[in-house]
Amino acid sequence: MEKKIIPVETDANKLVNYVCGSNYMKTGEDVKLKPDAEYPDWLWTLNTERIVPLDELDPDTKQYWRRLRKMALRRNNQLSKLKKF
Questions:
Q1: Residues 6+ apart with CB under 8 A from 36
Q2: 67 and 55 in contact (C-beta within 8 Å)?
Q3: Neighbouring residues of 18: CB distance < 8 A, sequence distance ≥ 6
Q4: How much is the pLDDT for 85?
Q5: How far apart are alpha carbons 33 and 47 in whole angstroms?
Q6: What is the pLDDT of residue 40?
Q7: Cα 72 to Cα 68: distance, rounded to the nearest angstrom
Q8: What is the pLDDT of residue 67?
Q9: Residues of the chain where predicted confidence (pLDDT) is lower than 50
Q10: Is-contact 19 33, C-beta < 8 A?
Q11: At a CB cut-off of 8 Å and minimum separation 6, what does 19 contact?
């Protein structure tokens, strides 16, 4: 199997105005970016920097309990892998 070389977009105008790689069809073009005002307000409040640690989350939220459950499931799965028959 040969390694496929994917071309990298270097045109600055296209990188600023289009979502490069959004068109997976052989024909057509990439999606054009719209002005910021046309996107919903909640989009700009998403956390894109880091995952908030569990101790910083409020225990009264659903997000806290989902994260706690996920961590417990991961811990139990790791412990079950260590058990010998």
A1: 44
A2: no
A3: 29, 30, 31, 32, 33
A4: 67
A5: 21
A6: 95
A7: 6
A8: 95
A9: none
A10: yes
A11: 30, 31, 32, 33
User: How far apart are the C-alpha atoms of 67 and 83, rounded to whole Å?
Assistant: 25
pTM, rounded to two decimals:
0.49
What is the per-residue pLDDT for 26?
Answer: 83
Closest C-alpha among 36, 6, 5, 34 to residue 21: 6
The answer to whether 18 and 32 have CB atoms below 8 angstroms apart is yes
Residue 30, token pair as written in the block: 């990439």
Tokens 């919903």 sit on residue: 40
Q: Exposure string (b/e) for 19-49, b if CB count within 10 Å is 16 or more? A: eeeeeeeeeeeeeeeeeeeeeeeeeeeeeee
